[in-house]
Amino acid sequence: MFCKHDLERLLTVDAAPAVSIFLPTHIAGRDIRQDVIRLRNLLSKAQDQLCEKHGLRRPDAEAFLKPASDLLEQNEFWRHMDRGLAIFLAKGVSAIHRVPVELPEEVVVNSRFTLRPLLPLLADDGAFMILAVTAGRARLFCATRHGIAEEDAGLPQGVAEIHAETNYENNLHSAPPARHADRTDRGGVSMVKTHNFGEDPEELRKAHLIEYLGRVAGRVRDHLKPFRGPLVLVADEEIQGHLRRDAHLQGMQEEGVVTNPDALDIDDLHRRAYAVVRPMFEQTRRTAVERFNALNGDRNTAERTTTRAEDVMVAAREGRVGVLLVAENEKVWGHFREDYHRAFPLHHATDGAVDLVEEAATETLLRGGEVHVVSKEELPSGASTAAILRF
Description:
InterPro entries: Bact_RF_family3. Pfam families: baeRF_family3. The protein has helices spanning 4-11, 31-52, 58-64, 66-69, 75-78, 119-122, 159-173, 201-223, 237-246, 266-296, 309-317, 356-366; strands spanning 18-24, 84-90, 93-99, 106-110, 128-133, 138-143, 148-150, 231-235, 257-258, 305-306, 321-327, 333-337, 342-345, 354-355, 370-374, 385-389. The chain is 38% helix and 20% strand. The protein contains twelve helices and 16 strands. The chain has three domains: 4-114, Translation, Eukaryotic Peptide Chain Release Factor Subunit 1, Chain A (2-Layer Sandwich), CATH 3.30.960; 128-281, Nucleotidyltransferase, domain 5, CATH 3.30.420; 297-389, CATH 3.30.1330.30. By secondary structure, the protein is an alpha+beta fold. The strands form four sheets. A five-stranded mixed β-sheet has the order 7-6-5-8-9, sandwiched between helices. The protein has a four-stranded antiparallel β-sheet with strand order 3-2-1-4, with helices on one face.
């Protein structure tokens, strides 16, 4: 999962050169082999740029790129891919992210990391989480409307863990029969420890299920601390009831997918979970566009809007952008002059140029503004970005 705290961490890196590598990847099949070849070719381009534009010797460039080149020989790594792979390398920094959005095949070596391809994950109508739970296993996924990727959240894998622990404790302590359960809190739902296997089997099953779901909730809560998007629960009716009553998970949607998630393949799981959040996402995006159009179309409020990328970028740096609309896959190259506190657009990329749209989006996110990725047709004619200003 690539979240705002990852964005913040990468933007604070001030150690040129900074290498950003993006490539589309595949979950299975022969295309995985092509993904490896694709990364090898991108690393070759990165090495050339490090040597030719940044003056590194070949051995130094190879050492710089080693965290990424090591992946070429890690077969297990490529068996757990999703739609995209993003790699960020700088002195003392190595960040690798599998993401559920298809990324361009691109390498950028600059004075700072490039993050534009990941904006769909950070937009206010972008990413959501899926928690799929059965008595046998629990899985957490990060998803967008484009795809889905499983998170490594260290979730407990089924009620069997609780059974095994209880068996061990009973054998270790030889506890006498008891009709009650001891409860302690472990960061989620109340925990249940039952020491008497002579109890009613249904009571025992339910006690162990609640214990297991409490542990799942605690792990999910810890994992999602930096995440502020919606969470869709996919589980049967009993598990839905326990988690909704006791877990209080941040962002959990009132509507879930009431079914056994193990009966769904990954595409069906994604499709049914996205159907839950899609109306909310579309309404959020539509409301932002309508609000911009209303303000921009009224001469009394038009000054609270702007569509010039250079002005939007400066306003974002000043914390004045409350809502930002950016056209998908559109770039506006330019320079920012600190001495003039102005941005100057360029007709094409040059050395030291930055994407003004990306700069505006990242600055807006860092300062608590909303960012929405929209089609170019939803923006005023000729615009690549549009902003509603706070002041």
